[in-house]
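Could you please consider the sequence and fold appended to this message?
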Amino acid sequence: MGVEEQRAGEFYVERDVMNELCLDKLARRRTHSTRPLLKERVKDSLRCSVPKLKRSVLSFIPILSWLPRYSVRQDALGDLISGISVGVMHLPMGLAYALLASVPPVFGLYTSFYPVLMYCIFGTSRHISIGTFAVTSIMIGTTTERLAPNSNFMTLNGTNGTHVLDVVARDAIRVQIAASTTFLSGIFLFLLGMIRFGFVVTFLSDPLVRGYMTGAGIQVVLSQFPSLFGISVGRFSGPLSQVYLLIDICRHLPETNIAAVVVTLVALAVLIVVKELNIYYEKKMPVPVPIELITIIVATLISYYCNLHSLYKVAVIGQIPKGLKPPRSPDVSLWGSIVGDAFAVGIVGYAVNISLGKIFGQKHGYNVDSNQEMVAVGLCNIVGGFFQCHVVAASPPRTLLQDSTGGKTQVVGMISSVLVLIFILQLGSLFEELPKAVLACIVLVNLRGLFMQFKDIPELWKSNKFDLLVWLVTLVCTILLNLDIGLGASIGFSMLTVIFRTQLPRYSILGHVPGTELYLDTDTYEEAKEIPGITIFRSSTTMYYTNAQLYLDALQEKSGIDIGMLLMKKKKRDTEEKRKDKKEKNKAKKEAKKNGVNGCLPNNTVHPDDKWDEEKGSPELKLNQTAIALVDRPINGQVNWAFEQQGTGFDRGPETGIHGDDHMTQMSSTGREGEVGRSSFNDTHTIILDLSTTNFADTATVKTLKNIFLNYRKIDIDIYLTGCQVCVVEQLSSADFFSESIPKSCLFSTIHDAVLHSLRLHGASDVPIIYEYALDLACTTKM
């Protein structure tokens, strides 16, 4: 075998036709795996050495790797500016998103402090800003309100006999629920990360995540309507809770607080205008205007000096205690009722983290370890659970701000944490008069990125309608079924679309492209022509138990050979022949007994059947004739062939394919027989199955392939497999697929090898058209 380079871009190959056995011998297939045994791998994983210990420690605590190499000259200034900018943004977001989580605002500041420090130590992304996030906050809020509704904390006022809400007791329980959920979520993520289970996020496709985020954003908007209009509404949980909430909001709209609406409109106008200006002048300003911080400062001053709370009943955030709270162990007794919520919110937070991390990692040229990210987020939530924080995630607005202001390392998180700490220790109490409507406006304005994802709809409509369906179903499920159940339903539907797509693959008949060794879909390429007598069949997806029968049906439809009809007619013909033979024998016995002669007719007369043999040729001679004709297949390939036998029996010669005088009568795809203008033979003697798209072989695949071999052999059609990957061949061997009736020599490396083997096997002298066709092939093959 040699390869000779003729001209640039062309090659010439001369080699023998190779089946699987020849290829194993030529390439010297290994008799044993080069992969270490399980016992050796376990020993190696347990073996400890100083270099291995160092790698493990540096991998588990990335700060030990990047901090000693930190360049103060190159990175310090950018990190300082970015850290201050992100820290300023943490303050209003922490206060606002705490209200989404249904906990007092100060706990949002705690969430912007402790987990951020932990991520600086264990995280691998240099650019994401972890902390409070709208979607995870609303998920925590759904859990806290479900387990601690307002109705559980109503007390009777002894003075006037009315029911009063015990806000202090309610908030204490809700903080405990949020902390326990956060802690349990962290345990899930940490354990999954330690067993290298970071790939779990791959089950959340990009359309699913974006649709889920958009649906969660709609829930966030609905949850902020009461603060925007200054009304009090009921709390709802479970499926259709958002529908009930919207109805309740509409019912209470007549009670709207005009002062709260005015505050809302002014705050929204200022925030939207300045945000748009920041975007417009992004390249001209070193840092964007911190409009959120400016808004809460100005709003607090106006509220304080105008007595908005006491005079106009405008709701304010209330007391913000100074200092940090001591750590507190989570309430383990709550885990049974929050386990599903904890897992869901943890996976969602991790999915957002790894998505943003990989985006900015690719942008700046470094890798983000998905498993270490899962460990890092898990540790952030575990530590946060001890300090009454709620679940954290990377925030897209803060992350974009950190990148645009020149942040280059995790030092940005440390600087922003210091700023948040100063606010908690000294400045927090100054914002007790801040209207909740302003925080709601900050939440809404920062959801702009989520709602921009509605632009995905026209894009997905053009590119992939299955992904569009996943996006829309996820959006609807998230809104109607709530965040936890909606996430599970969306994942289930997304997996169903994958299964459904394997049920609708593209089945193709391949033809040869003249002048090349290529075989392409005849429906797609005009120059791809079928080789007479050979049908090459390919599926665009792997064959397994859910589509094995569909594969078989498509093979019959595309090849034009109705195997069931043929086998039924063959069986019927064999039965008829046996009955005739038996009848002839009985008749011969009666004649012999009547004439008293051993089977001879009187006067040396010739038996009528023998006379027929003399005139038309004996059946035995007839069986050694080859009846192969060229068939012009319709473009769409939708032809079925019914079997009509006018001669005798099937038989296979040593070198030829189909023998016998077996006539095929055309049946169209609508079932009509004998279509006008179309009577021909089905001259197929070989079917080649291209399994290059198959990546595994389950029991259904093995059974289907066996049936194909056995059934088509009964009607004298050879079956060959091509393009099988090594793992597929091994699985077929393990399933005892190969035997005397199905030898391993029926496997070929390429379609071209199988075609040339079939042409040689069926004799070029009998089919000169096919032989001439073979000589035109580009790759010269030594026969």
About this structure: The longest helix spans residues 563-595.
